[in-house]
Write a structure and sequence with these properties.
The protein is an all-alpha fold. The protein has 13 helices and two strands. The protein has helices at about 15-35, 40-65, 70-80, 90-100, 120-125, 125-135, 140-160, 165-190, 195-215, 235-240, 245-250, 260-275, 285-290, and strands spanning about 230, 280.
Length: about 300
């Protein structure tokens, strides 16, 4: 990976741009849910999905220490499970493991890998293998991915709770409290049908997040060649808080999101040389190439 030539400056106690954006996102979410009955579903779904996705991007920034330096304060600030599918504490733990770049994409080690160990894949029922194959196309990832991710997260959570793991008990307890708070606001106060929330907020929000992660990593011998760059426009750039410059983020996880575009422009040639030109010029290109065609095999090509 390309490493910073100079030591990054010390982080301020409060990152005001990220804090301001967090409050703005919650305000927009509050307005969208409050006025949901006045918005047609075909407009509510993209707006609700974008807000839930943006909240997920803010959770990602919180994992890396933004906008507040205090871990618990960040957890309280962004911990509401707007997407419903994963407790923030679980995400924080697994995402930090994902940042061990030497283990990127390795099934069973990298918790964010979509690859499966070849031996395990051969042992799965045919329907399960077919489901995994379908979800390795972009259309399958967007349509099936939210349900697959939710089922896998809840299944692992159930195993951890049965095993009496203290962190899991804490994470899922806070998740339950968060869902309760969300229910009070969305259902009891705003009068929204829970199914409408799932279909117009949680589901499209998770799908948009999976669009971002679809091409973020690939199996490669060289660690530096495993992480992608998507030169996204401003809409997806802001929606994903410029995490589309994923090499930049893995290289400097503590770099604030609004500094990633400039860092990329300054060192573009070096990043592309390091990651083997694993770059897309837009998310539209990813859609055109992989909507109905799988990008990678399900079985990890370098494992087993």
């Amino acid at each position: 990976m390309v490493r910073a030539a100079v030591q990054a400056p010390a982080l301020a106690a409060t990152d005001w741009p990220t804090l301001g954006l967090t409050f703005a996102a919650y305000a927009a979410f509050g307005l969208a849910t409050w006025f949901h009955a006045d918005i047609p579903w075909w407009a509510l779904a993209p707006v609700g999905g974008a807000l839930v996705c943006l909240h997920g991007s803010l959770q990602h920034e919180a994992v890396h220490g933004f906008p507040l330096r205090a871990r618990r304060a960040n957890s309280l600030l962004v911990g509401l499970p707007l997407s419903l599918w994963m407790p923030y504490g679980v995400y924080r733990t697994t995402h930090l493991v994902h940042h061990r770049d030497q283990d990127l994409t390795l099934p069973g080690i990298d918790p964010e890998s979509y690859y499966v160990d070849p031996a395990r894949l051969r042992s799965l029922p045919r329907w399960h293998r077919a489901l995994l194959e379908a979800s390795n196309t972009l259309l399958g990832r967007l349509l099936l991915g939210p349900w697959i991710a939710t089922a896998a997260t809840f299944a692992q959570g159930a195993r951890d709770l049965r095993a009496g793991k203290k962190d899991a008990i804490l994470d899922w307890s806070f998740y339950a409290i968060g869902v309760g708070i969300l229910w009070i606001w969305v259902v009891e106060i705003c009068g929204m049908n829970p199914l409408v929330y799932i279909l117009c907020f949680a589901y499209p929000g998770t799908s948009l997040t999976l669009l971002r992660s679809f091409a973020e990593h690939r199996a490669a011998d060289e660690t530096s060649a495993r992480t992608a760059i998507v030169e996204a426009g401003w809409f997806f750039g802001l929606l994903y808080l410029f995490n589309s410059y994923h090499v930049v983020h893995h290289n400097e996880p503590s770099l604030p999101w609004y500094r990633r575009p400039r860092r990329y422009r300054e060192r573009r040639d070096a990043y592309l040389a390091a990651n083997g030109d694993y770059v897309f010029d837009s998310y539209a290109t990813i859609v055109r190439r992989y909507l109905l065609r799988r990008k990678e095999p399900v079985a990890h090509p370098l494992a087993g």
